[in-house]
Design goal:
Length: 292
């Protein structure tokens, strides 16, 4: 049976280290990092995410601001708020919660952020820096995936890694991070031929597809490490359940280690957001962040 990769416990440990680093920065530099989260509309899932982000931001000793705007907010009004937050020296990280209402051009809003405060790592400048091997604020979920993989496997050099999914928010950045860790990276997607044959070559599988329980145990090389990014709600036996993109029951019999859903990658995302906020605050102030 595969070892369970406990993302919840790892994220809790990371938040403790971030809280210690925040108190060090406050004491040495008289600086309190601050994160502003902007939510447009009242999507229930987004409201829960934003509330969790605010709670955990305060728990590690940072300042937190929530800007809740109505669903009919104009693009112009949202861009004006982004501009104001860019100019506010007490704000070091800005996160605009996705998805935005249809009438707002999300790419335009993301690229209006000051790249130095882009703690989600979605601004083209940060994406470009990541892909050219420069210091960047990097998307939180991909960073969380690679942290869990390294904590499980140690050095990733030379491993065959297969990323399933090529979205801008997970698949592509996680592939860039694995390349930087010296993996041989294959990116698979909906047009890939014979996906099981591709994943069977992988020492490390990162599944970011959004299809419940798609990856089966017989798609895996025995002993492979599986990081399951998927969060899918399904109905089973009259119950509403959260499942990943991997069929946990069959995968855990073949994999060497696997993340559960929930409790795997999910908790890492906010912890990495807090880490990015601290890094952004230190970079803006001109000093290196404490070791975390
Ligand atoms: P997207 O829908 O943006 O991308 C899905 C990717 O999967 C696409 O590249 C698509 O290929 C590929 N794909 C779809 N079907 C298949 C298939 N049958 N075979 C192979 N590839 C396929 O999703 P996201 O990247 O945003 O999210 C992926 C999953 O991760 C979701 O379940 C989401 O909820 C979860 N997630 C979890 C987070 C967390 O833990 N905090 C954060 C972000 C996402 P193509 O490009 O060809 O269409």
């Amino acid at each position: 049976m595969a070892k369970l990769i406990d993302g919840k416990a790892f994220a809790a440990g990371l938040r403790t280290r971030i809280a210690k680093a925040v108190s060090e920065v406050k004491a040495k530099h008289n600086l309190t990092p601050g994160l502003a989260v902007v939510l447009v509309g009242d999507d229930p899932a987004s409201r829960v995410y934003v509330a969790n982000k605010a709670k955990q931001t305060l728990e590690v000793g940072m300042n937190s601001w929530e800007h809740k705007l109505p669903a009919d907010t104009s693009e112009q009004a949202l861009l004006a708020l982004v501009k104001k937050l860019n100019a506010d020296s007490s704000v070091h990280g800005i996160l605009v919660q996705m998805p935005l209402p249809q009438h707002i051009d999300a790419a335009k809003v993301l690229n209006a952020l000051d790249p130095a405060k882009d703690v989600d790592g979605f601004h083209v400048v940060n994406v470009g820096r990541l892909s050219t091997g420069q210091e960047a604020l990097t998307a939180c979920t991909p960073v969380g995936c690679v942290m869990l993989a390294k904590n499980t496997l140690g050095d990733l050099t030379g491993l065959n890694a297969v990323v399933i999914g090529r979205s801008n928010i997970v698949g592509k950045p996680v592939a860039q991070l694995l390349l930087a860790e010296n993996c041989t990276v294959t990116i698979a997607h909906s047009k890939s031929q014979d996906l099981p044959a591709i994943t069977r070559r992988a020492d490390l599988v990162i599944a970011a597809v959004g299809r419940p329980e798609m990856v089966k145990g017989d798609w895996l090389k025995p002993g492979a490490t599986v990081i399951d990014v998927g969060i899918n709600r399904i109905e089973r036996n009259g119950k509403s359940l959260l499942v990943g993109d991997c069929d946990f029951a069959s995968c855990e019999k073949v994999a060497g280690a696997i993340t559960p859903v929930p409790g795997g990658v999910g908790p890492m995302t906010i912890a990495c957001l807090l880490q990015n906020t601290l890094k952004a605050a230190c970079a803006i102030a001109g000093f290196a962040p404490p070791h975390m």
